[in-house]
């Protein structure tokens, strides 16, 4: 039997320690905080846990049909009419006991493909899908019920259910319609058109090779062209649909035929207002269809209680289909519909509701004052809201759904922060949002606290209580850091301190611009925050930093694909400085070709698939009469360059510097040879495990043992060691600056975004062994500030010192995840310790920290017996996910993270 | 007259591609298990007099559309303004 690395190191007296600050007890320790949701919510949540991700063709069918019927009209109008038709044809489904209704489709956890965005996957799989559909026979109930092992994922075709991309199930009877729909969009989709024109970029060949090498994770123009942004519910909440439609008509009259000094886009305003009016009618009608369904259900209800509940729904839904909401429940219901409408309009992950507790405060306050609702009823509604959001699926291609999103949709709800005049913005409703998050632990909406020293202790401790429930939320973001980033990045577009305070988190932890709008309810005035910026899911998506370094060492040649990705640099790399400069050169080439090609994809998107509904929601599109593609939003400098694997890159540079250049213990060629031979180990794929300690040695190869040992012992980030930290500081100062060298299609500079989501698994899989001792195919360290598992040996405060050696406000974000044993933070004292720890990191200038408060042994047990852990939630990197719905590379990485036994 | 499935029935609340809730029993039922005598058809293209089956399995044509647009058997038609139930099916629109 092959030796595992952890055993080898143990024998040598240098064990990889995955625990710090003590030793965990032998038995599995559960989570300290555990509450149950209200009975009706428990039923709805249990139904969710039994539900498969289900795709259908209803929406794309009506979209495609209307788009074709309107051939010859302006693209924006064809799209508006197509969306309106699709919304009006959605079959409304209301589930027993629901207080909040609405869904993307008629399935409970439904979604649908958008072949107008990209149809190539279905065309490539046409035969396979057809055969699976035609061969399908009747499966027994037992067979179909076995789906549970992957949670809601339909990982394989069974009976009359066809698996698509290993995630979504589609009825076999609908598969021919899916293929037919895909055919209708060949040559017309954003993917196809973008591809046609991106090939005209001189650097296109390099871009293709970079994509094949998985140095970059995915194109953004046709995969997720929107998202990681903050929605704005203001206009429907303030005016209601009827008034908005009326406003569009008035605006049309005001601009029709008039350029008003803008000879390029002035005339476009008429078409935008007409398109906005059209889609508002569609969404209003869609809500009304739910009202009709509720009325039908009221007629056939068996009990008086049911009749009353359906009757209430009828009243609520008819009202919010047209008017400003009157109550907290109506406002929450309306925001739910608006949210679903936006994510039905486009392929979006990370459409975040923002600071909901502050947005809905006017209704909460007035309902409470009038005695119309109790806090317990509010919590029940908020629990329903959690179930509704957890049901959201994003239908995108396999690589994006599995490799990046891990099935998550990142609807981030932010709490805390400060008001427009700088006071604590936390309120009682936010306490109830936290309570609902504790009682109804689920993936969505994930919660984030905008930490500010002004926030009251009671609120902060409530957030800590929620963390101790173990689902990984709320995450903690630095409010001051976020405001500084807003001012740095958006001042040129008019951002001031007041509106900088309205920022929120879009997606995992993407700092996103917002503004305050004055809302009037029953003659009382309130200032509510909401998103006012473009998506931040756009730009250059996830550059694998260790992979770029690998190609520096191999003269631009990828040994995995056998391709020359970058032009050979043909340098001897005799000095560390030369190595670092070459890394910068290759990195710059990467950013350049990915920016230009993605700009073309997004340009096609804005011309052919522009957001209309999302646009009209966000300031200042309605004021300007321009959609997102014409820069209708207040803030447009949102394109970014995302990195992955920062810490493995830093540790690798530290090892190269120490072993090759400073101490000269090994030559460059000796290091390279050891890396190409994976230090004498099998690959992670061969072993079937993706964490470092479990890798297996090849029999009889000992020649790389010494160099591997030295690489593992070389200075590592996370220990307050200036040797490694100085490399991180130099990298960050360069990276944060260089992103601005590239320009988006909106003629705005790019900026850095430093999160990993799940890409550290996929990109680790394609990376050879690295000089830090990491072995081929194993997962990178998560996030951007998390230590590589087992290498942070000096405790959390040393880790914080390392992490804050640079100015985090220069970047949209940074990301640190910590795993803490439940015993380490038990009781009131434990809560205070955890808050002190959090506060310490925030005060040092760290941007983000989040906790997995879980016993690693529970995760190991869950990996062996997933059927016993359907409800186990863990924090990955910016999001919470059900353990059984996460791929093995990420599971291995979460298990391997250093577990803190004391803080 | 085609054989009805659970997801063709008015008493069926669709949960996912494999199952739903039967409103008569409030229990989960698998779509592809035999239906009970209470099963009554919902509006779907395959139950519509404007639907003409095509050569490709599960696909057909909507005769109500001006341009003769294609459609598919299982498309729900609750919100379709042109749905007209075939005589042999009970339409509960």
TrEMBL record, chain A:
Name under which the protein is recorded: 4-hydroxyphenylacetate decarboxylase large subunit
UniProt keyword rRNA processing present: no
Alphabetical list of SUPFAM superfamilies matching this protein: PFL-like glycyl radical enzymes
Every PFL domain range: 39-775
Domain Glycine radical: 783-903
Glycine radical: modified positions: 878
Domain of life: Bacteria
InterPro entries: Gly_radical (IPR001150), GRE (IPR051215), PFL_dom (IPR004184)
Pfam family membership, one: PFL-like
Keywords for this protein: Lyase, Organic radical
Described function: Catalyzes the conversion of pyruvate to formate and acetyl-CoA.
Keyword Nucleotide-binding: no
TrEMBL record, chain B:
Cross-referenced InterPro entries: 4HPAD_g_N, HPA_decarboxylase_ss_sf, HpdC_C
Domain of life: Bacteria
Catalytic EC class: lyase
Catalysed transformations (reactions): 4-hydroxyphenylacetate + H(+) = 4-methylphenol + CO2; 3,4-dihydroxyphenylacetate + H(+) = 4-methylcatechol + CO2
Keywords tagged on the record: 4Fe-4S, Iron, Iron-sulfur, Lyase, Metal-binding
Protein name per Swiss-Prot or TrEMBL: 4-hydroxyphenylacetate decarboxylase small subunit
Cofactor(s) named in the record: [4Fe-4S] cluster
Entries under Pfam families matching the protein: 4HPAD_g_N (PF18671), HPIP_like (PF18524)
Occurrences of domain 4-hydroxyphenylacetate decarboxylase small gamma subunit N-terminal (ranges): 4-33
Keyword Iron-sulfur: yes
Organism of provenance: Paenibacillus aceti
């Amino acid at each position: 039997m092959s030796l595992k690395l952890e055993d080898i190191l143990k024998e040598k007296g240098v064990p990889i320690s995955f625990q710090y600050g003590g030793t965990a007890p032998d038995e599995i320790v559960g989570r300290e905080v555990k509450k149950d949701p209200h009975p009706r919510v428990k039923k709805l949540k249990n139904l969710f846990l039994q539900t498969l991700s289900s795709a259908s063709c209803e929406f794309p069918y009506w979209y495609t049909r209307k788009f074709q019927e309107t051939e010859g009209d302006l693209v924006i109008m064809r799209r508006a009419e197509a969306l309106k038709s699709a919304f009006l044809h959605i079959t409304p489904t209301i589930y027993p006991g629901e207080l909040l209704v609405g869904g993307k489709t008629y399935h409970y956890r439904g979604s649908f493909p958008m072949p107008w965005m990209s149809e190539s996957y279905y065309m490539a799989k046409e035969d396979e899908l057809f055969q699976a559909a035609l061969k399908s026979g009747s499966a027994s109930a037992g067979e179909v019920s076995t789906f549970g092992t992957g949670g809601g994922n339909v990982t394989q075709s069974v009976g009359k259910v066809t698996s698509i991309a290993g995630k979504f199930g589609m009825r076999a009877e609908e598969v021919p319609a899916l293929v037919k729909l895909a055919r209708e969009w060949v040559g017309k989709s954003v993917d196809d058109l973008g591809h046609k024109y991106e090939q005209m970029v001189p650097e296109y060949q390099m871009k293709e090779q970079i994509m094949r090498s998985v140095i970059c994770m995915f194109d953004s123009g046709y995969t997720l062209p929107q998202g990681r942004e903050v929605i704005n519910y203001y206009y429907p909440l303030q005016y209601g649909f009827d008034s908005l439609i009326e406003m569009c008509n008035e605006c049309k009259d005001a601009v029709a035929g008039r350029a008003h000094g803008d000879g390029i886009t002035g005339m476009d305003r008429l078409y935008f207002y007409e398109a906005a009016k059209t889609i508002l009618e569609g969404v209003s009608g869609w809500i009304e269809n739910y009202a009709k369904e509720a009325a039908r259900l009221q007629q056939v209800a068996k009990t008086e209680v049911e009749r009353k509940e359906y009757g209430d729904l009828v009243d609520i839904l008819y009202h919010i289909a047209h008017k400003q909401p009157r109550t907290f429940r109506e406002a929450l219901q309306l925001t739910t519909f608006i949210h679903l409408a936006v994510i039905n309009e486009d392929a979006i992950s990370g459409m975040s509701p923002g600071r909901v507790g502050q947005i809905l405060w006017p209704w909460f306050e007035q309902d409470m004052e009038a005695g119309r609702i109790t806090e317990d009823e509010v919590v029940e509604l908020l629990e329903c809201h959690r179930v509704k959001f957890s049901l959201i699926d994003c239908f995108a291609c396999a690589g994006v759904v599995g490799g990046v999103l891990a099935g998550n949709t990142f609807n981030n709800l932010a709490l805390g922060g400060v008001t427009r005049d700088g006071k604590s913005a936390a309120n009682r409703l936010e306490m109830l949002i936290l309570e609902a998050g504790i009682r109804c632990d689920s993936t969505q909406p994930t919660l984030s606290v905008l930490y500010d020293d002004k926030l009251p202790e009671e609120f902060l401790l409530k957030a800590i209580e929620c963390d101790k429930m173990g689902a990984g939320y709320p995450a903690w973001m630095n409010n001051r850091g976020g405001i500084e980033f807003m001012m740095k990045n958006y001042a040129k577009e008019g951002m001031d301190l007041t509106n900088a305070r309205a920022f929120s988190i879009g997606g995992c932890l993407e700092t996103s611009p917002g503004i305050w709008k004055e809302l009037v309810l029953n003659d009382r005035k309130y200032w509510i925050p909401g998103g006012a910026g473009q998506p931040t899911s756009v730009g250059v998506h996830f550059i694998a930093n260790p992979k770029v370094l690998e190609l520096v060492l191999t003269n631009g040649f990828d040994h995995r694909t056998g391709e020359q990705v970058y032009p050979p640099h043909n340098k001897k790399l005799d000095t560390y400085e030369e190595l670092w400069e070459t890394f910068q050169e290759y990195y710059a080439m990467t950013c350049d070709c990915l920016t230009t090609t993605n700009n073309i994809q997004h340009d096609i998107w804005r011309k052919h698939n522009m957001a209309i509904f999302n646009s009209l929601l966000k300031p200042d599109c309605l004021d300007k009469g321009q959609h997102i593609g014409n820069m209708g939003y207040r803030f447009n400098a949102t394109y970014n360059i995302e990195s992955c694997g920062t810490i493995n890159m830093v540790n690798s540079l530290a090892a190269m510097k120490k072993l090759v250049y400073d101490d000269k213990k090994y030559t460059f060629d000796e290091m390279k040879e050891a890396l190409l031979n994976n230090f004498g180990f099998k690959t992670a794929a061969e072993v079937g495990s993706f964490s470092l300690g479990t890798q297996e040695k090849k029999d009889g190869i000992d020649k790389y043992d010494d160099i591997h040992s030295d690489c593992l012992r070389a200075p590592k980030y996370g220990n307050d060691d200036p040797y490694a930290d100085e490399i991180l500081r130099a990298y960050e100062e360069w990276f944060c600056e260089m992103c601005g060298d590239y320009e988006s299609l909106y003629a705005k500079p790019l900026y850095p975004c430093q999160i990993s989501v799940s890409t550290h698994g996929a990109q680790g899989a394609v990376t050879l062994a690295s000089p830090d001792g990491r072995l081929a195919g194993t997962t990178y360290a998560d996030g951007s500030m998390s230590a590589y598992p087992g290498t942070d040996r000096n405790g959390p405060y040393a880790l914080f010192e390392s992490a804050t050696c640079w100015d985090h406000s220069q970047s949209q974000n940074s990301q640190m995840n910590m795993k803490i044993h439940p015993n380490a933070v038990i009781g009131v004292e434990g809560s205070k310790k955890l808050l002190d720890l959090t506060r310490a990191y925030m005060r040092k200038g760290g941007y983000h920290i989040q906790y997995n408060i879980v016993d690693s042994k529970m995760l190991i047990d869950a990996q062996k017996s997933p059927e016993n852990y359907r409800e186990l939630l863990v924090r990955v990197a910016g999001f919470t996910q059900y353990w059984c719905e996460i791929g093995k590379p990420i599971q291995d990485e979460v298990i391997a993270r250093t577990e803190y036994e004391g803080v | 007259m085609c054989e009805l499935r659970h997801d063709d029935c008015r008493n069926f609340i669709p949960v996912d591609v494999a199952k739903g809730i039967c409103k008569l029993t409030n229990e989960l039922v698998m779509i592809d298990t035999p239906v009970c005598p209470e099963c009554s058809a919902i509006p779907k293209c395959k139950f519509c007099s404007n639907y003409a089956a095509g050569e490709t399995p599960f696909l057909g044509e909507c005769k109500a559309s001006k341009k003769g647009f294609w459609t598919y058997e299982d498309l729900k038609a609750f919100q379709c303004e042109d749905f007209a139930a075939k005589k042999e099916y009970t339409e509960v629109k």
